[in-house]
Write a structure and sequence with these properties.
Order of helices and strands: EHEEHEHHEHEEHEH
Structural class: alpha+beta
Largest sheet: 4 strands, antiparallel
CATH architecture of the largest domain: 2-Layer Sandwich
Helix content: 25-40%
Distance between the termini: 14 Å
CATH class of the largest domain: Alpha Beta
Number of domains: 2
Strand content: 15-25%
Number of helices: 7
Shape: globular
Radius of gyration: 16 Å
Number of strands: 8
């Protein structure tokens, strides 16, 4: 049975607190197997017989809306896709290894248009740099996230689509454990 990772937007932020055992039970209630959560930021790993990730995303979103009372945009990736994401090197090793910078991965439902890509790339400044590959946006933040002129909300607005961001270390740990 295929394994999937769901990256959920709006879990344990903005006053929407969800306990991980409850979140696991919600996924089990949909009929998914081997449900696990990874840290309390809306990362759910599960097995499903389904092959169409768009259908899975919609099914999860409908169920979470009904159970939680608010929209939870869902971004599904297979473990093999996570391996490709963490193996992609959009920035130099020297820059990534310098003290201070943090790399975030933004998950999108679809590949952004060329126009949207160019708009995101135009947000690059001394503290923030961006790269787009497939359905992911890579954000190199050279300052504290709270000190950046860019935010997840600004990136979503620029892209014209919802996104959810995770630190690359979280993505690496999930990929290492499930790939």
């Amino acid at each position: 049975m295929p394994k999937y990772v769901a990256f959920l937007r709006a879990i344990n932020v903005g006053g929407h607190t969800v306990k991980m055992d409850y979140l696991r039970s919600l996924f089990e209630g949909i009929g998914f197997a081997s449900v696990e959560t990874f840290i309390a930021s809306g990362n759910v790993i599960f097995d499903s017989k389904a092959k169409n990730t768009k259908t899975l995303e919609q099914k999860i979103e409908r169920h979470l809306l009904a159970e939680l009372g608010y929209a939870v945009t869902t971004f599904i990736r297979a473990p093999s896709e996570l391996t490709e994401i963490v193996d992609h090197d959009p920035f130099s090793k020297a820059e990534l290894n310098a003290s201070g910078p943090a790399l975030y991965v933004g998950f999108l439902t679809d590949k952004p248009s060329n126009e949207a890509k160019q708009k995101v790339l135009s947000l690059s400044v001394a503290t923030d740099d961006f790269a787009v590959q497939g359905r992911e946006v890579y954000w190199l933040c050279r300052a504290k996230l709270s000190e950046s002129a860019v935010s997840g909300a600004l990136l979503e607005k620029t892209l014209g689509t919802p996104a959810t961001f995770r630190n690359i270390n979280t993505v690496r740990r999930i990929a290492a454990k499930y790939s």
